[in-house]
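#struct-pred

JT: dropping the chains for the assembly here, can someone run the whole complex?
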Amino acid sequence: MSYHKPDEKTLQALKDIANKLRIHSIKETSASNSGHPTSCCSAAELMSVLFFHTMRYKAQDPRNPSNDRFILSKGHAAPILYAAWAEAGFIKESELLNLRKIDSDLEGHPTPKLAFVDVATGSLGQGLGAACGMAYTGKYFDKASYRVYCMLGDGECSEGSVWEAMAFASYYKLDNLVAILDVNRLGQSEAAPLQHNMNAYKERCAAFGFNTYVVDGHDVEELCKALWHAEQTKGKPTAIVAKTFKGKGLKGIEDQDNWHGKPMPKDRAEELINDLLSQIQSPNKPLHPQLPNENVALADLTPIHLLTAPEYKIGDKISTRKAYGVALKKMGDASPRVVAMDGDTKNSTFSDIFKKAHPDRFIECFIAEQNMVSVAIGCATRDRTVSFASTFAAFFARAYDHIRMAAISQSNVNLVGSHCGVSIGEDGPSQMALEDLAMFRAIPTCTVFYPSDGVSTERAVELAANTKGICFIRTSRPDTAVIYDAGEKFEVGKAKVVRQSDTDQVTVIGAGVTLHEALAAHDELAKEGLNIRVIDPFTIKPLDASTIVASARATEGRVITVEDHYKEGGLGEAVLSAVGEEPGIVVHRLAVSRVPQSGKPQELLDMFGISAKSIVAAVRHTFAN
Amino acid sequence: MPSAPNYKPGEKIATCKGYGMAVAKLGRYNERVVAMDVDTKNFTCSEIFKNEHPNRFIECYSAEQNMVSVATGCAARERNIVFASGLATFFTRAYDQLRMAAISDSNINLCGSHCGLSDGEDGPAHMGLEDMAIFRAIPTATIFYPSDAVSTEKAVELAANTKGVCYIRTARPETAIIYNSNEDFHVGQAKVVCQSKEDQVTVIGAGMTLHEALAAAEQLKKERIYIRVIDPFTIKPLDAKTIIDHVRATRGRVITVEDHYYEGGLGEAVCSAIVNEPGFTFQRLAVTHIPRSGKMCDLLKIHGIDLNLFALPRPLHPNQMK
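RK: done, full complex below.
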């Protein structure tokens, strides 16, 4: 197949669209009196060629699964993205002037309130990882011909997550992925470190395994050709490193410092617009994007249920981390949409059980947690898959900005963190998650599962797969007894009262390892005729406030919470929030109060006051009062 | 600091600018002070430090994880007193590094600007609404949330001399100076900024919402309803004693209002402090769901954390509280 240069009329039309996009960007940001027109102007030819020559998509159905995908990783150039969709006919041109208004979906940075936005951007460095997830899905899961294009800024390339994504893309031979770098030299508060050293960009991209072209980012013909070559390249993703100028087309502003994030001054805007208008030769020649090659079926959104009940008997011993692995494999049996990924911890998180059973649906993301989360998000866009990403719970802290953005992206990704708390023992605090409940509780769309045995873990995985928003499942390292019957039903936001009597003196709420400590405390106290009610919250968010309040009232307002987590933001504070507005309830919280150390798990539970012994002491203390 | 803050009551300065001025001033008299930023120095105002002490400023570009690591490295063996700044929300990018900084016993100081809804039109990607939650969950952290430029300067001074990870939360909008330059500030010491003998409820706010609470106090005064307003100054450690004493004096009624999500922030911190006090009625106002782009004043209203405590549909009118 040889390259055919587009005819002069087409090239001129593409140049004209680029200038129209510039004009729209100026008008939008002038109307809102905020925004980033100069960042838009450097990308004008890139956007024009991508949207009106290279990409194949149905303009009136942006989310069609057959469409080529586009991610604007440099999300602050949102105005030009909106302008492109206006030129494509999906947005009314008049709506553009509502940029950043409280009642417009054309927000300052793109969010999926808009059908043509799959993942929210605005926090730099996250788009390429999501693009990798989409490209991986297209190539290996959907086995379709759609291509994925991601535009990044040069300042953005300082983010490490960009390079995690680059490594992933070449490792997995994502030849349906194109990264476009808009190298306009200037960052936000000063020039980007490499400025216009195009050779440095070329060498870095090539070193990361990309088929790399350096182009004049304002030459539409060069862009058409490079993007065509990208499509012909097999076995490697492509990087188009475009040399551009910030504010290109704006006289006196192009390539000048101090114009980042500034709308055009009122007294210059009209002149700049007229100048651009004068360069448009065929203002009325429309260009229509090509349609996709094939029809990719819409995702089957039937809920996914375990084909068989959990196979555990009460008293069996299994860690919740292993129960996750078993559950995930079973979900993979139940539906081809379930895919899993891990950060080189699959033998510890037990996602390797899924990998053995469904090797073509497992993605090893290596030690790159940020990218793993982005890939999981990308795989889940347009509902192509139900994704489960796992690593040690502590290491989701590495990806917290990505998790935050996943919520803004309305993602349904499922994240599973093992090795929570001090109960992991000898590896010590760097491997212990003691703040993850706080992290995930502060994510608005998140459901936080904290199952305490094998049966409830399996049901948590099943529920997570069918629950919208981000789902986090916290699993533990040590083996613990199965306490629920295989037929027990579980629901989000429904706690279980696992021990109760008519003479309960205190309600004790624990989860995971500390639920078992509470059960041990219960048995110990029962020997002396002191009964306590024990509650397993199952989900920390949403928390079953009514069960907890009812139980507290039945135990004279006395509640003890015990968690393998720091004091702040976890189970204790969640319970406080639930009962805080109820009079007459006293809550005593047991949690880890300082950075822990290495030691045997049981020793650490005792040392940090969250073991059965500590619970017994706390019960006696509140009972004495 | 060799001299008191140089502001006059009523002057309007954003706390993010107050930070920039304070760090520059601290650096004037102490050569060990260094600062760094992630290509946001024009927003965080760390460029004030850069302009005055260019050879002690490290531009880390758009790489938050690395900035925190570099900060930790610079502070090791006490070679430097480090102040690293960025937008509040982007410290979420470096949370594992912050977690490890505590395990490393590091004394780094961090400043997150444009907290909460104050970045308005940029939209939710730029809004720090979970930063108090994540810093509260760091055992060695001290969290400063100064509400004017005077207390911001004091926060910077205290942070430089406080062990552990110190975080200063600053905001974008200009706000009035409310403290005299000679006001004394301490970690874990709240300030009662508005009180009378007839106060019916204690309102605790910080940053923007402290100013909203003060404005509400003014408005309610006209209707002969009096509220007590407390500025916690540090969210961690929180001055539980002052809060409890004053809430008792206002018949056990307390409202917290924060430019942050419900979970893990000021409201939960106060709740933790007062939960076992009998007879307290507690209401929390915070941001409930992911916000959208818009003008800050509109966003504050939509999320119910603006001046108009009075007009809210929720039963928060002091006369309606039990």
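JT: nice. Chain A touches chain B through 76 residues (CB under 8 Å). Chain A is about 35% helix and 15% strand.
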